[in-house]
Amino acid sequence: MLPLMTACSPSQPTPHPKADSAPEAKTKPAPAAPTAPQPTPTTDTHAPPKPGTLRTFTDWTVGCDNALRCTLGSLLPDASIGQDNLTLNLVREPGPVANGGGKMSLAIETRNDQAATKRPPASFVVDGKPIALRDAAALAAAIANAQSLKILDANGATLATVSLKGAAAALRYIDAQQGRAGTVDAIVATGPAASRAPTPALPVIAAIAPSGAAAKLTPAQIATMRKRGSCDIGNFPDGADPTQFAPEVHVLGGGKSLAILPCSTGAYNLIGALFIIDGATITPAQTDAPSGFEETGADSATPVKSVVNGSFENGILTSYAKGRGLGDCGVHQSFVWDGTRLRLSEQSEMGECRGNIDYITTWRAKVAR
After folding, report:
1. Taking the model in full, what pTM does it have?
2. What is the mean pLDDT of residues 216-224?
3. pLDDT category, 19, cuts 50, 70, 90?
4. Of 72, 81, 103, whose CA–CA distance to 166 is shortest?
5. First vs last Cα of the chain: how many Å apart?
6. Torsion angle defined by CA atoms of residues 223, 227, 228 and 233, in that order, rounded to the nearest 10 degrees
7. What angle do CA 150, 154, 157 make, to 5 degrees?
């Protein structure tokens, strides 16, 4: 993937810097009344996760996260699925351009395109007009009222033709979600009003840094976990590698460890049941959001939570539920441990199985350790 950055919308003036300080008061203000202590950056806000939703407009999909960072991504026509093709994502940050917000970036996904590994993308052409590879703002403005978009290599040869059906509607959706409709900051839904686009703060999770040594499980403990999660070895295909059945154990901190117990498998998804080990006590792990595709856990008849294709590294538990083997649809999630439960710190999704493997972020939190 080629991540490419640019500044604000080309239709906006360069933001003026703010004054370093306010004018000196002519009279001495009265002492302020005592107020409640304000949260520090490390104070947990205890915000329940509410990931944004995705919308599809013909050949583009779009979504915004809880901080109003919005992304639109191109989708391949159904007839092109499985061929070498490039996809394009455009991201717009929240907030008024005059205050430094509204910046745009783009990324071209090249991992599914053999030609792009030898002939990297070098520029765009929109309705015959050349646009620099890094100028995301100019590209967004151009495709809002265009018929064709081509991605070129350094020699000017066409690497991909991207459908623009639905692009204008997706950009208009972003204008509405970010509070820009009818203002000078909008890309499509422009108007004369000054922008008052909000910039929501990210929620904060006070997480615990891993420390100590991971627990060592006995065969009896593993058997107990299998029973509680209905994780029968018969869920695995005949002849499966026995190492697939073995649990992973990772230290969480505070004397506790996390066990990820393989519970069942499909063609490209391995479901792992989650348990907390605290000395001799083993309990199902608690999460503040469902992982993978299901509201239930490892088995719908049990209270045990699970992850899909799960891994744990640097204090972060990840789940990557694929809608199909190509990985062009599904849900990717990250969780952190707060001493009591696993908390969703990030979620990205792709609801359409149409070639785009650059998922759209729908939830973010700031992790403080």
Report:
1. 0.86
2. 94
3. very low
4. 72
5. 30
6. 90
7. 45
